[in-house]
Write a structure and sequence with these properties.
five-stranded parallel beta sheet, 5 strands, alpha/beta
């Protein structure tokens, strides 16, 4: 019974990824173009989310600053989830809903990109970060699920919405990390060309 349940998790994840390959290829490609335009112009990517999505934001920044699968110079990316002093000061002095938007206001510049991650699309602090990014003339790449929630309604024509067609948080997060890896791979491809396997 337990082994069957574990196996079913793999099947469900694989099924969703096949389905998402159809619907998400174009928005992921658009996200790659947005990131490329940003970093080749000397900009940076700011990433945020809560819980597992905070981990995904940090994972993304680590792949950019360190490396993905090939050696290259570091790319400018900051996870807005990692500075405990900023998070607790803003949360205490203002409100937890402003922990990311305050950082976007201070660190963001026109032409930068905000990678906004929320499985529901309804995280108040991520929504506030999106609004702050728009005020700074930044492009938003939204990673959501469940139809996109409130974030979907906030996005503009110049933003990119990668909305996983599922309701379950775990499945949405599994596709989010795949989307992040797709972005990292495609950025490396455009910067470095095809990998020579000889």
């Amino acid at each position: 019974m337990l082994e069957q349940r574990i196996q079913q998790q793999f099947f469900d994840s694989a099924d969703l990824k096949y389905q998402a390959a159809e619907t998400l290829t174009r928005p992921i490609a658009a996200a790659v173009q947005a990131v490329m335009g940003c970093i080749t112009a000397g900009g940076k990517v700011l990433a945020c989310g809560n819980g597992g999505s905070a981990s995904d934001a940090q994972h993304f920044a680590a792949e950019f600053i360190g490396r993905f699968e090939r050696e290259r110079p570091g790319l400018a990316a900051i996870a807005l989830t990692t500075d405990s002093s900023i998070l607790t000061a803003v949360g205490n002095d203002y409100d937890f809903s402003q922990v990311f938007s305050k950082q976007v206001q201070a660190l963001g510049s026109p032409g930068d990109v905000l990678l906004a991650i929320s499985t529901s699309g309804n995280s108040a602090n991520v929504l506030a970060a999106v609004e702050a990014a728009h005020a700074k003339d930044m492009t938003v790449i939204a990673l959501t699920g469940r139809g996109g929630g409130k974030m979907g309604a906030l996005l503009t024509d110049t933003d990119v919405h990668i909305c996983v067609p599922h309701e379950r948080t775990a499945r949405i997060q599994e596709v989010h990390i795949l989307a992040i890896h797709c972005i990292c791979d495609a950025v490396d491809l455009q910067l470095l060309g095809e990998q020579d396997n000889a």
